[in-house]
Design a protein that fits this description.
Layout lengths: L2 H24 L16 H16 L6 H9 L10 H5 L5 E2 L7 E4 L9 E10 L2 E7 L6 E9 L8 E4 L9 E8 L5
Antiparallel strand pairs: 1-7, 2-3, 2-7, 3-4, 4-5, 5-6, 6-7
Helix pairs in contact: 2-3
Amino acid sequence: MSVKHARLSVRGIPALCAVLLLTTACATAPRQQEVPTLSGIDPQRQVMAFQEAKNLRAEGKRVWCVPYARNVSGIEIRGNAETWWHKAQGIYNQGQQPQVGAVMAFDSTRSMPMGHIAVVSEVVSEREIKIDHANWLRNQVSLKMAVIDVSKSNDWSAVRVASQPNAFGSVYPINGFIYPKSR
């Protein structure tokens, strides 16, 4: 290829990019679970966790809350979600106030015997947050799912999760929040 032809090829790149962008804009928008939300959480960790979940689904494997939350938050605890609150003691700071990047530890219940964990992605108000988590909806990653504090003492010990748009489900007991170490 001559230098002259190389220059012509390079000049065609902006036009090619424009065509690709227009084509992409006309495509069907992916479901919310398919699009990583990067605000408030370390973008590199979020993308890595989202990609790992996508790869697991592509291989026909299950996406679980624990590896997803560990990948997003950087909190290095192993074991079922129900064990995280106790395993964090003395290693990570814990508390009752939600903070972006913290892991919300659900206590185990009859319907959720292994517990559940989620990462706080946004603090909306004193009584509402949004969480990113996996496997609340079977084998899916759910982003920016609304959660409201329904505890009588306003201490985040009981919550309701918006599993459906504008519809909050059952009351779930919460152990508290595990805060990641400073980056």
